Amino acid sequence: MLKRFLAGTLCALVSSASVAAEPLEISIAYVGQQIDRGPVLSNIIPEPEDAGLQGARLAISDSNTTGRFLQQHYTLHEVEGEDPKQLVASAFDLYGRGIRFFVTNTDSATLASLRSSLPADTLLINAGSRDDALRTNQCIDGLLHTIPSRAMLADALAQWLIMRRWNRWMLVEGATDDDRAFAGAIKRSAQRFGGKIVAEKAWSFDTDLRRTAQKELPPFTSGSEYDVVVVADERGDFGEYLPYNTGLPRPVVGTQGLLPVGWHKMIEAWGAAQLQSRFEKQAQRWMNEKDYASWAAVRSIAEAVTRTGDNTPDTVRDYLLSDKFELAAFKGRKLSFRDWSGQLRQPIALIHPRALVSSSPQEGFLHQRTELDTLGFDAPESQCRVAR
User: Fold this and answer.
1) Which run of H or of E encompasses 229?
2) Quick check: 248 and 221 in contact, CB under 8 A?
3) Any idea where the domains of the chain sit in the sequence?
4) Which one of 54, 303, 337, 367 has the fewest CB atoms closer than 10 angstroms to its CB?
5) Superfamily assignment of 2-148+263-346 in CATH?
6) Which CATH architecture has domain 151-261?
7) For 55-77, what is each residue's pLDDT tens digit?
8) What sign results for the dihedral spanned by CA atoms 326, 330, 332, 337?
9) What angle do CA 361, 106, 371 make, to 5 degrees?
């Protein structure tokens, strides 16, 4: 299957007038920040330490598979660490060695430092930070995003809940800034699509729920009549114990229970099973959302280089933001970048650990441009204008 896919792709590319006549060397840097999230109060399985990096590595391999026929060679330069200042210094050193493409898996503050420290003739693609502010009012010049924003995840979940007519939501929010950010995205989605938050609960306890969940969570989630519990617990302090322990026998969705995600092992259609298999052979684990975002970032750069025959950042960036760009990315439709926020349009999967339940946007949620723009911040809602 993969060989047939690559052969078909190669034939299309060779027949394209945009295939480069001269050999091209394309160097891409991966900048990964190792963030200490602190201890959690549950048995949640931690994110792999190489999340994101393995996706970039696979994309380099995929790009070289066809690139060798097109006289294009891709090289990945890896920078990882905990200290943001050291990451910025390392990235600037790579710039001095001629690298102009940077795929980042960092928090938003480090991302802003990278952008302010690197000269303007660099292309940065965010594959790590879901912060909505980066897509709305804290715009970073020329920044693209392949990881979905929190607003996209919340909108994908809200559409499904409204489609199921589960309109009454109990919102349970954790104590971290990330939890508050996701809860804010859920509130926006409720207002946008017609959900009603009938109760809000703030989890601020340090209880060890491994021993007390059955006793403490039912009364905590009692009170108002609701159709579903929406949980905002990105770190995993308490949300893992909410399913089957709610005051009313209701489903749990959000950061636990039914999850909105950019990628998951349970996505297998549209050739995704082949991508999953290649990743698992390389990394010896499942591909996660950050792996996929890094893979999509590198593959977007490679697609632009292939179509334009040019490896300069301005040409690549302009092509990525144009109507000509489409990324075949194993999600059932071609993906493209929003020219206002730089966000990669993409379907969002709704999954539980063993199955894909649905994929948003849901049928019936319409948009004048593409229904993918019903997920996240539309152009009138954003102050960013990446394409200038």
Assistant:
1) strand 228-232
2) yes
3) 2-148+263-346, 151-261
4) 367
5) Response regulator (3.40.50.2300)
6) 3-Layer(aba) Sandwich (3.40)
7) 999 999 999 998 898 999 999 99
8) negative
9) 15
